[in-house]
Amino acid sequence: MRVLICAGGTGGGIYPALAAATELQKAGLSSTDILWIGTKGEMEESLVPQAGLRLETISGGAVAGVPLSLKVKNGAHLAASVPKALRLVRQFRPDVMFMTGGYMAAPVTVACRVLGVPISIYLPDVEPGASVRFSLRFARKIGATTEGTAQYVPQEKLVVTGYPVRPELRAATQLSKEEALAQFALTPGRRTLFVLVAAGVRRKSTRP
């Protein structure tokens, strides 16, 4: 079995896909049985190779919630990326495409539709993001974290799976307080502030 993964842009889409890739490998797939297509210049360029997976990138950008000039520019990049997406999918010959979203969603969806590759989508958020909405109509199955997603997708396609958790996070729950402090090089007994933010606002939150 060969699986094409289409995910990128933020950790919200990348990390669930990495968790899924880990489980696929536990089930017997090798790293050569998985191809990941992401967007050029996004964080998947570092995270996916670190996981030992092959990554290919295509050009793209947001076309929703951005100025008209960027809509035109990014839309042109996405349209121009369709031939490369077709080439990558044709060469890899996947049995299924697994998508969580990302700017490359539309070109890869078009390629899979043309080449007859079944599409499966997992939605990390309750409401589908703008980048993946185009692809929803073509999916055979749509996984979701909670039942709240039912109002946004066809009932007959929806499967509530819960959120995929990476093995290292599951292992971290078994650490003692002292082990956790040591892992992050924190001083025991010192007041510690834990800040949790979404990937998209991380840079703004840490700016001096």
Topology:
Layout: E1 3-7, H1 11-26, E2 34-39, H2 44-50, E3 54-58, H3 68-92, E4 96-101, H4 105-115, E5 119-123, H5 130-136, E6 141-144, E7 158-160, H6 167-172, H7 177-183, H8 202-206
Helix pairs in contact: 3-4
Descriptive notes:
The protein has 2 domains: 3-167, Rossmann fold; 176-206, no CATH class. The chain has helices at residues 11-26, 44-50, 68-92, 105-115, 130-136, 167-172, 177-183, 202-206; strands at residues 3-7, 34-39, 54-58, 96-101, 119-123, 141-144, 158-160. β1 (3-7), α1 and β2 form a beta-alpha-beta unit. With 208 residues, the chain is of the alpha/beta class. The protein is built from 8 helices and 7 strands. α3 (68-92) packs parallel to α4 (105-115). The mean pLDDT is 88. The chain is 40% helix and 16% strand. It has a 7-stranded parallel sheet, sandwiched between helices.
Task: Using brief descriptors, characterize the structure shown.
single chain; about 210 residues; alpha/beta; Rossmann fold; seven-stranded parallel sheet; 8 helices; 7 strands
Number of domains: 2
**Low-confidence region ranges:** none
Radius of gyration: 18 Å
**Percent of residues in beta strands:** 15-25%
Structural category: alpha/beta
Which percent bin holds the helix content? 40-55%
Q: Would you give the CATH topology of the largest domain?
A: Rossmann fold
Report the principal-axis shape.
Answer: globular
Overview in brief:
The chain is α/β, with parallel strands linked by helices. The chain contains 8 helices and 7 strands, in the order βαβαβαβαβαββααα.
